Amino acid sequence: MPVGLFRVCLLVITAIVNHPLFFPKENGTIPENTEEIIQKMKEREESLRLEQLRLEQEIADQEATQKALEKAAVEAEESKEGTVRWDMWTALSMVIFLLIELWRQDFQEGNWQDIGGEEDDMAVLGKAFKGVALPDKAVLASFYEKRILGTTGDMARMREMVEGFADDLLEALRSVCNRDADMEVEDCMGVGSMYENWRVRKPFVCDLIVPFAPPEPYCFRCQTWCSGDSFPPDEQGYGTIKVCRADEDESGCICDKTKLGEDMLCLLHSQVNSTRPSSEMEDLLCFKNTQYLDADQVMKWFQIAVTKAWNRISHKYEFDLSFSLLDSPGALKIKFKSGKSIAFNLTPVVQYENSDVYFISHFPRSSLAADVPSSTHWFLTFAVYERRFIQLVSKTLPANACHVSCLQILSFLHGKQCSLTGPSGLTNYHLKTVLLHLLQARPSQDWAPEKLEARLQDMLKFLEKCLHEKKLYHFFIGNGKVPAELGFPIIFQRAEPLNLFRPFVLRRDIYRKMVDTFHEMLRNMSALINEYTVHIPLAHTNGIRKEPL
């Protein structure tokens, strides 16, 4: 009980002491301070909330940046792997392409020229040789001796006579020309079948080329289809000749390519030399308003010069000289009082740089061949190198080798067939090209005299293969196996091979005529040979001819 009263009293006393009315001054501002604190707390809360939002945004931005970097790294890795795979396929494709290109070049340069076993070739080349039998060795030997061998002495005498007269004529030509204005003529050179000793068809015609050069201070600058300039396919094998001053820069000054103002003067060239009158270039035999040598102008100049030269020396000779072909500059004919005549070609040419390749103004060609693109395009002839190659190879062949005999027999048969069925696109130059390829492909011992029949078959098979494929490549152009002893220009060895049968690809009528003529020649071969062969006793039919071919 007393404890309960004590607790009640203590509670009352505590309530009285803590009542606000006992302390009005001290506790009068408590409500105002509380509101201020609450306001500050709200502001602090708002500040903390904004700071939290800012930090969350920064964290989100960092995470987005990190994800972007990771994604970029993954994409870069995938792109790198794709690039590596693409580079690998590109490299592999390039290797395959190079292997194919090397195989193609080898195939064009020589592999396609290889001649395999004779029986295999007979089966592969088709029906042309089926049922065709060549005469045996004895008949071929008799034919060669009776029809061909006897003409060798006639050719030698004719060459000697023509060369002597041509030298005299060119010496007179130099004397009638103006040394300061006319072209300078050099000594002539003999080329072609007469000088390679395989001409068989009469009349015999000597082919002589005459290099010429412009007067000082001019010079010739030659461009070919394989010198880097763009030439269309129908101009392969041709080139152009530019007439320039010897002191003129090869690339030419800019004053020749742009129009200078009236108050401007080129410091390298005077006003006199900067422009060349049209008449001056025409005097240099150039095409009108150009610096390119014109083959037609050269033809006119050469014919006039030869006529003047002959008028000066004609009193020394007891024969007449005339032009046998109006469209050929140097097709000359000597007419004796007895009625006999001798024909020869004296053709002006331009030397290519310091080599024995020449630009020829009018190349003897079949009327069925492709036309010259223009009179400023000159055909390139490799006749000097062809003659040297035959001479070089002949030194390595057995004594009395049959290579020339094969070409002579084939040329004779082809000429006889053309006289029966008319001319075709196939020429003696094509036949010689076949021989040049075989001389390079066959070992030396295969050209022994007793193998005449086999090598003649090789030439016919090779020619049939080329006709079938419509491809007969020029022997020198694109041929990297030309002997270094010849000194042949490397630019032509590195050029693309030149297909001599290309003009016939688009002219099917001419190609058909050429193939038909070849097949007719095969069928008529035995008859043509027997026609010019004396009767051979039976005892000698199995023998082998011992006389030199």
TrEMBL record:
Which keywords, in A-to-Z order, does the entry hold?
Cell membrane, Coiled coil, Glycoprotein, Membrane, Nucleus, Signal, Transmembrane, Transmembrane helix
Q: Where in the cell is it found?
A: Cell membrane; Nucleus outer membrane
Task: Please list which residues make up the signal peptide.
Answer: 1-20
* Pfam families xrefs: Mab-21_C
InterPro entries the UniProt entry points to: ITPRIP-like (IPR026250), Mab-21_HhH/H2TH-like (IPR046906), MAB21L/cGLR (IPR024810)
Question: What GO molecular function terms would the record report?
Answer: protein kinase inhibitor activity
Superkingdom classification of source: Eukaryota
Coiled-coil annotated spans:
38-79
- Reply yes or no: does the keyword Glycoprotein apply: yes
A GO cellular component annotated for this chain's UniProt record is: nuclear outer membrane
Q: What is its main location?
A: membrane
Domain (Mab-21-like HhH/H2TH-like) spans: 404-477
Membrane protein topology class: Single-pass type I membrane protein
Does the keyword field hold Membrane?
A: yes
Matching PANTHER family: CELL FATE DETERMINING PROTEIN MAB21-RELATED, INOSITOL 1,4,5-TRISPHOSPHATE RECEPTOR-INTERACTING PROTEIN
Protein family (similarity comment): Belongs to the ITPRIP family.
Any idea what job this protein has?
Enhances Ca(2+)-mediated inhibition of inositol 1,4,5-triphosphate receptor (ITPR) Ca(2+) release.
Protein name according to UniProt: Inositol 1,4,5-trisphosphate receptor-interacting protein
Q: Which organism is it from?
A: Calcarius ornatus (Chestnut-collared longspur)
